[in-house]
Structure formats: C-alpha cells, structure tokens
Give the backbone structure.
Amino acid sequence: MTEHRPDSSPSPAPRPASPGRTRVPIEMPGGGRDLLGFTAQADLVDFEMLAASGGLAPSLDDRLTVAGLAAAQFDRFERISEELRVEGAAVDATLEPFREAFDSFAQATRPSSWVVSQLRALLVTGLRTDFSARLAPKLSEPLAQLLAPGPAAWRTTDFASRAVQKAISARPEIGGSLALFGRRLAAEAVGQCQRIAAKQADLTALVADVLKPAGAKGSRELDDLGVISGLLEELMDGHARRMARLGLGV
C-alpha cells in the first residue's frame, strides 16, 4: 500500500455536494463516526503516498497510472467526508484523533524506490481490504458500502502486484530487502493500531462488538482489546500470505 521526490503531496480541496441534492444520514452505531474518521484518515494518507510515488515511476505510463489510482483513493475520502458533513460532523475534527498514528506510519514506511512504493501500496491495500471484509457482514448495508474498498482497491492491488513481480523477476537479489520492508510495515501497522485501540474507546468498542460471537456481545467474556488483538493476528496472517505469494515469505 528516488533521489528527488516530494515528502508529501498537496490534497485537492473536497468537491461540494451536487446542487439540490439532499442526503439523509445513515443509521450510525456508537463509534460509527470514529470508524468513518479512521477510514477517511487512512484514505487521505493512502492518496498522498500514491500521489508521491509518481515521482518514483520508471515511465510516464506508470506515473499516469498511479495518478489515476491516487485520484480514485481521494474519491472515497470525499464520499466519507460528505457523509460526515451530512451527519453534522466537522471532517477535520473527526479525522484529527487518527492523524498522528497514520502520519507516523507513513513516515516509518515511506518508500525510497519505485518497487518499494508499489509493495507498500499492495500490502497496505491488502490490510485495509481484509479489515473491511471482517467488519462488513455485521454492519448496516449503507455503512458497509461506504467503508468498502471498492474497485479502486482491486486496481491498486493488480497494478502494484505486477510491478513488484516484474521488479523481482528482473533483479531477484532485491527480494531480501523487500521482505525486510514487509516485516517492518507489518510491525508498524500493528503498533499504530494498538495505540489507536488503546486511545479510542468508542471505536474499539464498536469493532470488538462487531467481531464478538453473538453470545458474547455485551458481556465481559471477551475483553475488547483481546478481540482487537485477535483481529490483528488475522490481518497479519493475511499479510504473510500476500508476502508468500510474492516469494517474500520468511
């Protein structure tokens, strides 16, 4: 999920809703706004990282492709931002609790080459897709659709996977450094998610309640942070499988 590259890319201003269009707020569970803020902040950082990776692209065609992928990522950010405004929430204030964690993750995993930028995009997209897939079946349909990665995620995964495989095929010796990057990204992702879970009680309670077995909802049988730890283990299993498919498994 170069010797001369920007540290960040400016974010386009959100587009206003279509004139005359009336939006009705979706039914929001407790912690629902926090879940939207978490997802939107991730979308914003993913957009910035994809846009910045254009400066690392080996060809103009690759640069144009990642620009399109970044634009699609920002479109989902705008959809969530519009929903937050319909809910009467300030977008910046809703995202702010998650800004430090996602910015720290981005800084710690900032790529220095084209192939690493594409490996990062592939791995981050995979983690986010797995996370959404675990929650979606137990969320209301409107909320699940809003959080769904959508076609942009599959396009990013397909393009990034082919770019990484092409690079490894041309230079097998880079496999070791890519495997190391993948392990570092996983560790950073787990660490930042644990920090968010510890600080954002409403979001943690929502995710844990969604994932708990039906008989355990509302009980102390399963500790919320314990449920989150189990989810992170599942996400890391998926991450390991993606690395193995690239030939970068431990």
